[in-house]
Each structure stands twice: as C-alpha cells, then as structure tokens.
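Case study 2.
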Amino acid sequence: MKIEQASMKPQDIVVLLKIIAHGDKPWQQTPMANELCFSQSEMSRSLARSKYSGLLDDSGRKVRRLALMDFLEHGIAYVFPQHPGPLVRGIATSHSALPLKDQIQSDEHYVWPSAKGKLKGQSIVPLHKSVPDAALKDALLYEMLSLVDAIRVGSVREKKLAVAELKQRILG
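Prediction:
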C-alpha cells in the first residue's frame, strides 16, 4: 500500500456506513460506487484504506462494527471536525434530520448545502461532496450520516443521543 493511502479520508466513513446499510446482503464494488456517486478508483482506494486501518476485515467485505463505532464515538469529531457555517438552503442533517429531529427541539437548523434541499439552515460540510445525493437514495445511510454529523457538530447532549442511535444501527 502506498503511504498516501494509509491515512483515512472522510469518504471512507461514508463507504463503511453504506456497507452497513446494505445489511447482510452481498454487495459489489461497482454498483456501490455508483450508489455513492464515487468513481471506481475512489471506491477501491477507500476500501484499501479501511482494510489497512482495521475497520474492514481481512476479506475487505465486512465492517468491523465495534471498531467503527469506537472511532465514531471517540475520534471522528477530532479527525474530521466541523463547525456550522453560513445560512444556506439544503438537506437537513445532524439534529435537524431524523432520528434526532424528534428528540431535540431547536429553531436552529443544520443542512448540507444542496439545490435539492428545501430547508434553510447553517451549512455543514458533508464528509464527501456526494453525501447529499447518496443520502437521498438510501434512508438508513441518511440517518447514519446525519447522526455522525451530530457527533461532529453537536452539543454534549446531541452527541450522546447520536451515539446511542448509531449503536442501534451499527451494532444492532
């Protein structure tokens, strides 16, 4: 493996969550890359980095869910931090999207900037530029990505709720 591929990139989290969203069904790299709006080479490099980091098993097919959950709970906010930006139109994320939307009352909205969105709120830079489009195609992926954003930008309470919700989806 080349040295530049050894470090995780934000899109690797998107790929791992997409694999989890697939459930126990077998998946193929090319269709999954298309669902995520990734190039085939981008997908291959992401899988290689995740395997190298230990977040994918030796076969490169199954996510090591406990390891991923540990990273999301304790590391993602430090490795891929985010702060709310200017008001834009976009797609709800963090506490503004399900499932946290039903648990947290707030007049402040967080959104991924997107012309397809109808909500106005503070912009949150997604883990990858394709996240808004990929999330609209897969409800479970959308929920998990929104929960990850709540960990990246939320208050202590929001982070705690997001971790609990992610554990249900990732660990079962």
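The beta strands are 87-92, 110-113, 119-123.
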